[in-house]
Here is the input.
Amino acid sequence: MTAAPKTAKIRQTRTNTRTALVLAGVVLAMTGMAYASVPLYDLFCRVTGYGGTTQRAETGSSNVIDRDVIVRFDANVSGLPWDFRPQNPDILLKVGETVIVNYIAENRSGESTVGSATFNVAPAAAGAYFNKIQCFCFTRQVLQPGEKVMMPVQFFIDPAMDDDNDLRSVRTITLSYTFYPVPETGGPVAQSGQDGLREKL
Here is the structure.
């Protein structure tokens, strides 16, 4: 009579242990996926240009075609005491032509601040063809009190865009940056003259 309740209790304990282990595994897997989702999403966006994410390139295009495109430059700041703007509001270029443009950032506060820029391209489908060779958006930017810097962006539009039926009629592309505050510590930091990408004004 007592053997059956003991056996049932042992079975219940094993079931509870198995359930706890499965749940712990699920929690660990979800935690791992949460940490991996950001870099995986970033990789997906860079490969596909999804959401207007631009591409990275080591060198300029070797092919320039006879198609004019206007590239407009947008600048935004969220939560930083900065004045941030493009040096010129737009440029006219040939598809495949490599150009350098400048953005200007000024810290209007009395203390050192650190910002990092997110970016996108509109129309979003053009992001797959918008190749950046040099950009301030890949490092955190430190601005000292009152410091004003010029930050270059070097890019070209891949001539393959001309073969994309959805973008054949596109004559204007907008490159947009938004700077957000980031912690003072952790990750690479750009300062004037440190990485060759900035010029103090």
User: Anything to note?
Assistant: Residues 34-52, 188-196 have pLDDT under 50 and may be disordered. The longest helix spans residues 3-48. The helical segments are 3-48. The radius of gyration is 25 Å.
